Amino acid sequence: MFSIIARNERGVLMELKNLIGQCFCGAIKYEVERPLKFIAHDHCSICRRISGAAFVTWAGTKENQFKLLAGADNISSFKTTAEAERQFCKTCGSHLFFRSTRWPDEVHFTVATVTSDFVDQPKSHVFFSDKAKWIDIHDELPRYGGKTGVEPINE
Ligand SMILES: [Zn+2]
Predict the structure, then answer these.
(1) Which of the four CATH numbers 2.40.30.20, 3.20.20.140, 3.40.710.10, 2.170.150.70 does domain 3-152 have?
(2) Which of 9, 11, 59, 100 allows an S-S link to 84, with CB 3.0 to 4.6 Å?
């Protein structure tokens, strides 16, 4: 298994292994090789409604760093916009993957479905202008929003 060595927040060297994830029922399993392209809390209304949660935390990787380990036949694909497609488990409904022509050659996966140790911290809030009014965010992470969802915003 491929892995890289990195320092954690305390400066301690640690081995970062590939990430392993799966849907709730376990039919779909996947593996992601580092480095990740991003980790962000996504507040767009599509994520909110499709996941039934205040926001979805995504991480992204290059297509060639992503491997489906099991369950290809159990994946249900759904286009949420003209350019984007989301994938779910046909059995348990877990929201797993996102691909868009806006970010070609990338796979975005829901961090909540990672089952191996995940020590990385989200780096930003995106689509923050669409945030649900019924939650407050009190962290110091940069906030992006506006029309594209990823423009710097001040509030
Ligand atoms: Zn499942």
Answers:
(1) 2.170.150.70
(2) 100
Can you give the residue ranges of every domain in the chain?
3-152
Sheet holding 124-126, edge to edge: 75-79, 84-89, 95-100, 106-110, 56-62, 38-42, 124-126
How many whole angstroms from 73 Cα to the centroid of ligand 1? Answer: 11
Distance 85 CA to ligand 1 centre (A): 18
pLDDT by residue for the chain (155 residues), tens only, comes to 455 666 666 777 666 789 999 999 999 999 999 899 999 999 999 999 999 999 999 999 999 999 999 999 999 999 999 999 999 999 999 999 999 999 999 999 999 999 998 888 999 999 999 999 999 999 999 999 998 999 998 66
